[in-house]
Each structure stands twice: as structure tokens, then as C-alpha cells.
Amino acid sequence: MTSPINPFLTGVSTWALHPLIGHVEPGRPGSSDALLFQPSARVLSLEDAITAAADHGYTMLELCHFHIDNPTNDRLEQLRLHLEAKGVRLLSLLIDDADITHETDNAAHIAWITTWIDRASRLGADTVRVIGGHSAPDTDSRARCRAAFKTLSMEAFVRGVRVRTENWFPLLCNPAELNDCLRALQGAVGLTFDFGNWGEDDKYIHLEAIAEHAEGCHAKCSYDGDIPDEADFEACIRILKRSDYSGTFTLVHAPGESVWRALAYQRSVIERIYSEA
């Protein structure tokens, strides 16, 4: 496990920069040509986006797997060297597809994820984020999830990478399921705590219930047009502060017309709250 990092040093996800990057690369388990979603207008190359992030003072990055064009070993080495040259630490490769609870193609999905874990290692990433599963929780899906995570955590360990999951998708749909899964795995898998994946009236109660496991954070600020939901964003930050969280905050969302201004605002809110007595 990597050592804690001063939370004032916020990072940025390439998903927050997607309005600038635009493109998405094909490839899903069992379908090499499929896209997760449709691309939009491309303004910056991935290298340009990394450079821009560094120029705006972000020294930590999380990279969505579908933003990597042509993930050959040579290309991954190019990206690793570019990150190093810009002084940007790759906190995580976000593996945004695959279903480790798939009833029939489970092994193929695990193999696909393992390929991306190897790529994360070549990029110099600290961690990978793996989805807990698309299946609703039951005895069989829980068993498939936990067995897969044990396999993947070992594959990652031998490559110098740590696996984290997220409070996201049906299997880890509530605090009880998530906490039970992480405890059953006995520290083999960590948690990326995401502000934006749970809603409804019990959102903050649910987030409070999992905060003890947080090793990283996707600090999502929601917007109505260009207007941030400051109350929600602050409430989520304070949940982590009350739990003595001292890890990273990765900014993951910004309106398309004002990306850098929005991210600067979000960073200032985190710094203000963590500076309070």
C-alpha cells in the first residue's frame, strides 16, 4: 500500500478532462471494436492533456483506460516517460469495463482486466480501480466477486500495483455489501470512495458507513449548468475529514465550457475545509 499523501495535493482524472480529450478507444471483454460510449470533439491529445494538467498545478493523475490510444508496450512507455517528464504521478488506471461477476464469461473478463493491470504496471501506476460487479448481490455473485478479487489482487501484487474497487454498480450497491466484501478480502483490495455514485436521501448516511475503508477519493462535484452544488460537495468532503482521511482527492467532473476554472474552484473548497480547525 502506498503511503498517504497530503490531501491539499489534489489530483485530476482524465474523465474530468474528457470535454477536452473527447476521444474514446475501442475494446471491451469479448468485443475488441466496441465503445463504452460515443466520442466527442477532440481538443487535446492525451499528452497535451497531461501537460495542461501539470501546467495547472496538478501533480497527480488518474487515467481512464479508454483514453489510451493503441496500448502497445511502446506506446505505454511513451506515456510513462511523458508523465515523468511533466512531474505527474499516475495514481490509478481506471478500468471502466468488465464484470467479474459474469455468470458465463467470468474467466474472460478476469483475463481482460489482468491485461489492463499489466498495462497499468508498465505505465507506473500505483493502483488500478476494478468494478465490483454488475450482478445483483446473492450468494453466487458474492462468491464470484471475492474469488475474482483474490486472483486480481495477486496478479496486481506481482506487478507492483494495488487493486481498489469503488462504491459503484449493483453488487456493491449499499454499505453493508461493500463493507462485507472488503472485510472478507482482508485488506487485499482497497476502496476508492466516490462522492457521486450514491444518491437519494440516505446518501450521506451510506457514505459515512464506508468512509473508514477509503484509500483514495473521487471527489465529484455536481453541476447545474455552470453552477456547482457546493452544499453536497462540502458535505462529502467533511465526511472524509471526520473519518481522519489523509489520502488523495481526485477531481473527476467539470462542466465542458469551464473545465480548468471549475477544477480550481473544487480544489479550493477541499483546501479550505481541510485547513479548518
Q: Could you explain the architecture of this structure?
A:
There is one protein chain. The chain is α/β, with parallel strands linked by helices. The chain has a single domain (11-29, 38-256), classed as TIM Barrel. The chain is 40% helix and 15% strand. It has 9 helices and 10 strands. The strands form 2 sheets. It has an 8-stranded parallel barrel, surrounded by 5 helices. Strands 8-9 form a two-stranded antiparallel ribbon. β8 (223-224) and β9 (227-228) form a beta hairpin. The longest helix has 19 residues, at 139-157. It starts with 10 loop residues before the first strand and ends with a helix. Mean pLDDT is 95; it is low at 1-5.
In short:
The chain has 277 residues and is α/β, with parallel strands linked by helices. The chain has helices spanning 18-21, 46-55, 73-85, 106-123, 139-157, 175-184, 203-210, 230-242, 259-275; strands spanning 11-13, 60-64, 89-95, 127-130, 162-166, 190-194, 214-219, 223-224, 227-228, 250-251. The chain is globular and about 45 Å long.
| Named CATH architecture | Alpha-Beta Barrel
CATH homologous superfamily heading: Divalent-metal-dependent TIM barrel enzymes
Number of domains: 1
User: What is the spatial order of strands in the main beta sheet?
Assistant: 1-2-3-4-5-6-7-10
Mean pLDDT: 95
Measured distance between first and last alpha carbons: 29 Å
CATH topology: TIM Barrel
Under CATH at level 1, the class stands as: Alpha Beta
Percent in strands:
5-15%
- Form type: globular
Structural class category: alpha/beta
Question: Which sequence of SSEs, written as H and E, runs from N to C?
Answer: EHHEHEHEHEHEHEEEHEH
The helix content, as a percent range, equals 40-55%
